[in-house]
Amino acid sequence: MHPTTAALDSAVRVVTRAIEPIDGSLFTAIPAPTGTLSFVTDGDGLIGWGEYARFTTAGPGAARQIGDWFAELVDQFDIDDADGIGGPVAFVALGFDSSGPTPDEAVAIVPQVLIRRNGRGTFSTVIGRPDRQQVVPVRSPGSVRYSDATFSVAGFTAAVAAATARIRAGELRKVVLSHDLTATTERDVDERFLLDALAARYPSCWTYAIDGLIGATPEMLLQRNGSHIQSRVLAGTGWAEHAGDPVSATLIASSKNQEEHRYAVDSVAEALLPVSTTLEVPAQASPLVLANLTHLATDISGELTEPALTALELAALLHPTAAVGGTPTHVAMQTIRELEPVGRGRYAGPVGWIDASGDGEFALALRCAEVRGRTVRMIAGGGIVADSDPDTEAREAQVKMLPIRDALESG
To answer: For the domain 2-133+143-408, what is the CATH superfamily, name and number?
Structure first.
């Protein structure tokens, strides 16, 4: 565990106030090109900067440790929130694999300055007295070149072939495999540039950033508002090979995609049923159309039993769903460890935020990249079942990398 904080005086003042509306993108309010925190959809949500406190950990207890750390931190705050908008939050990204031989690291960051925009207006939450930051103009990363990272397309197609052989042999029913691609930019990447481009092209997705993990995901793992919960399950993907292709109809008619989707829905429902008084699970999936892909989607909603688990606890309970791991879970996770050459880090893990009341939102870290200076590591994949075709799966992964590629090249 590696907790770090600013000077922790007792009763640190935390003030939430309404502020003047921000014209256009929220990202224009962020002063610096790095260290951004974001969870935004349809132009509203949360952004933050100025790291007040950080906590990193790994292993099966990562979510619990982060929750305990954040609760202890909040106990030291004198929170002034007269309008009941909400106080400080922790942005959290959990590691994909918390139980393997080398667990992926989880990180939580509490920003010193938090901006919220929602139906009630625009609000700031400020911890202590942050130093004034000079505003650095946003600039593009310049030219971009691409190269294989740790797992080439050829390696990925071989892994898919090996996975389908295991599935046909009865070892498991589904596994999600991924591979990566590295982009090297002319200049250090300005995270605000990338976020703004992603949000503009994929407004209905959740555009997120935490500790250099940046993306725009269509999949909401869990939202908690009091006792009410919602989850959007995505699995099964189609895209147009040619203009005018009937993607939605073809996707709904695909037995391969319907099978892949049902495994994911069942895994979420089975995890939530024991902690819910009611749970509504639609019998049929619907097409979710994005700029470059169409997914099968099922929206699940329900009410939690009391005492309710926090949003972070629920995210940890759900992860990994069959949408990003496979089924049976333990066999799929072991298959991923064996067939993917390096750990995923925080790719495909829960990413989002939690507040002091336990409310929050956690999406799955998809359509994303790890950004470090001039190096951008993209990761994408798809669900593998018995009749998956390796070449088709490789094309799907490449299509899923397009959001980051297009955003990098948008300048």
So the answer is: Anthranilate synthase (3.60.120.10)
